[in-house]
Design brief:
By secondary structure, the chain is of the alpha+beta class. The chain contains six helices and seven strands; from the N terminus they run H-H-E-H-H-E-E-H-E-E-E-E-H.
């Protein structure tokens, strides 16, 4: 009987994390094109996550919880400035041309405020939006992705804060989509400079 259970266990494939495509991407991303910073070596613990959730009054989605506790938590990714010069004050251009990076807010103990989900939530609440938690934002875009109490994802719009666009994708799927869109914009920017 034991041998049967052992064989059954061996035949089962290990569960694949929803985050696997993200982990795979960052194992081989183009380091010459992107600067990437994360909490590597200073990952928050389960206790940090639970403390934040107690303050919120609800549990964060599982894929975000896993990501924020990983070495990639508190992720900042930008196209290197030599490839995509930063816009100057009062510079005019198509909206996409200002979106040179991605921020995933995290819970690392020493995260800078601009990358700390606790600080971002506090700013949101002080501005009157108390039912959403911003977790991902594009550099150059005022409209973050947010979780609500049920773990649903919305794109909050600063111009119409009461009209929320629901996203049907998971955190992991949205992050991968935004990474691919950043790659597309980078290539467009390269073509523009030729």
């Amino acid at each position: 009987m034991f041998k049967w259970f052992l064989n059954l266990f061996r035949k089962q494939k290990p569960a694949v994390s929803k985050l696997q495509p993200i982990y795979d991407y960052f194992r081989q991303y183009d380091k010459g094109s992107y600067a990437v910073f994360a909490c590597q070596g200073n990952e928050p613990t389960e206790d940090h996550v639970r403390a934040f959730e107690r303050d919120l009054g609800f549990r964060l989605p599982d894929d975000f919880r896993e990501f924020t506790k990983s070495p990639l938590g508190g992720l900042y990714m930008e196209v290197r400035e030599e490839l995509w010069p930063r816009p100057k004050l009062y510079e005019v251009g198509p909206f996409w041309s200002f979106l040179y990076g991605i921020k995933v807010f995290g819970l690392a103990p020493d995260a800078p405020e601009w990358l700390d989900i606790r600080h971002q939530r506090k700013q949101f609440a002080e501005a009157g939006t108390t039912d959403l938690v911003p977790f991902l934002q594009l550099c150059g875009d005022a409209d973050p992705y947010c979780f609500d109490r049920e773990g649903r994802i919305f794109r909050w719009r600063h111009e119409t804060p009461d009209e929320r666009k629901r996203e049907e994708l998971s955190f992991a799927e949205i992050l991968m989509r935004e990474i691919h869109e950043l790659e597309t914009r980078k290539e467009k920017k390269k073509q523009e400079r030729v």
